[in-house]
Amino acid sequence: MASAPTGRSRSLSICFPSAKAADIKTGPSFFASEPAAEFDFKGYLLRKAASVNRALDLAVPPQLHPKLMHEAMRYSLLAAGGKRIRPILCIAACEIVGGAEAFAMPPACAVEMVHTTSLMHDDLPWMDNDDLRRGQPSCHRAYGEPLAVLAGDALLFLSYRHLADMDNYPSGVPPALILRATTELSRSIGAEGLAAGQVLDMESTGVNKPIDVDRLESIHLHKTAALLEGSVAIGGIIGGGSDGEIERLRCYARCIGLLFQVVDDILDVTKSSQELGKTAAKDLASDKTTYPKLLGMERSRELAEELLRDAESQLEDFDPAKAAPLLHLANYIAYRQK
């Protein structure tokens, strides 16, 4: 299993062949013009998000007890909405290697549960101390800090149960693939992934000595890209993809993971809290190192362009029709406004 590269130059040499400048896609948020779109990406997003929301609603029914804990779980998972990027990545990765949506839906729900848990915990006062999430009060503001911790924990444990339960899958999904997918999820959120990235981020916030770009990339390869990588790798695994296909999907996900963070950092200083649906400029207020702070706005935008074309290059060997959702997802991340 390949480990995430820790430096930008190293990641370029391992995963990303060079691309011609003419291949760079441009779009309205940072670039000159929006890419042409023959694929109905908006319709695809709406259909997949609706499918994920229905599955999540069934996975965390409202009538379970303790009632207040499940209410808090559903508040963060369902009531607050969300773009569902990670579960849609999981489904699209399954489909690109020839699998069906039904195979990918249990792991897609699992990765969204994990992502929501990370947001519930990140927003707590002793972490990022954020009062706003997805346009509404954070879970700890709505339900109190102790319940936010416990509801997040419960959602995390439920993600593993949901992923591993054979009854959630249609017939024909080998148990060995489900076991491999479960291992992949653990890797992406534990000491090699999201949790490690959060610790690295905490250690690098408010320090007197500025961190360099390699350190910043390492933070976000773990904190942001790892779960995106896990999402597409799990989708590829459940879909029956080859090791080569799964590795290309991993490289694609590392690119869009860093791209997501670069864009997030830019939006944090160019958009309002109302536009973002979360507290704006909070990284600046907490003296956190960001890409614009370290590289400047112009170089950050150039880096976003590089990451976008690198992500696209990883999809070249796949069937174009099946690759369309992942290609447009990369563009969506680059051009998003919140």
UniProtKB/TrEMBL annotation:
Q: Which PANTHER family does the record match to this protein?
A: FARNESYL DIPHOSPHATE SYNTHASE, OS07G0580900 PROTEIN
Originating organism: Platanthera zijinensis
Q: In which pathway does it act?
A: Isoprenoid biosynthesis
Q: Which CDD domains match?
A: Trans_IPPS_HT (cd00685)
Short name of one Pfam family: polyprenyl_synt
One annotated GO molecular function is:
geranylgeranyl diphosphate synthase activity
A biological-process GO annotation: isoprenoid biosynthetic process
The organism's place on the tree of life at top rank: Eukaryota
Cofactors that this protein relies on: Mg(2+)
GO CC aspect terms: cytoplasm
Xref: PROSITE patterns: POLYPRENYL_SYNTHASE_1, POLYPRENYL_SYNTHASE_2
UniProt KW keywords: Isoprene biosynthesis, Magnesium, Metal-binding, Transferase
Tell me which NCBIfam families the record gives: FPPsyn
Q: What is this protein called?
A: Geranylgeranyl diphosphate synthase
Magnesium in keyword set: yes
- What family, per the record? Belongs to the FPP/GGPP synthase family.
